[in-house]
Write a structure and sequence with these properties.
The chain is α+β, with helices and mostly antiparallel strands and about 130 residues long. It is built from five helices and six strands; from the N terminus they run βαβββααβαβα. It is globular. The two termini are about 15 Å apart.
């Protein structure tokens, strides 16, 4: 099983440049059989652009997550604090085996999938079509 994560284009760029090796989330998928994360670059790009494997998922209070990930966060502390304001728990997905696709794919036209607001489960077939 895979997930599609919607990520803002400016953060997708930082991920592909190696400046951002953690993806932060307020909530995380419940399944533990996720093989890959498919990167959906949200508006205005609105395309599937790559994938990565999950090295680890860290869960702790926002202060602890920031202290342990800030050097590879790709964001500033002010944005991080605002994003997790009022939350007891923060999640940091450690990106591993990053792959940028040669072609970008329209999620709906190519796969019949409506772009997720945060994330969506998809079967393994989608990555075979993108390679």
């Amino acid at each position: 099983m895979n997930v599609i994560l919607s990520i803002k284009p400016k953060y997708v760029d930082k991920i592909f440049k190696g400046e951002k090796t953690f993806e932060y989330r307020k909530s995380i998928f419940k399944r533990n059989d996720i093989e890959k994360v498919i990167i959906y670059s949200s508006s205005p790009v609105m395309k599937v652009v790559g994938e990565f494997k999950i090295k680890d998922i860290y869960c702790a209070n926002p202060d602890e997550i920031w202290e342990n990930t800030k050097l590879e966060s790709g964001i500033d502390e002010t944005f991080f604090r605002k994003y997790f304001d009022g939350k007891d728990k923060a999640f940091a997905i450690k990106i591993n085996n990053l792959k940028q696709y040669k072609d970008e794919y329209d999620l709906f036209k190519s796969f019949g999938i409506k772009p997720p607001q945060s994330f969506a489960y998809v079967d393994n077939g989608i990555t075979k079509l993108c390679n």
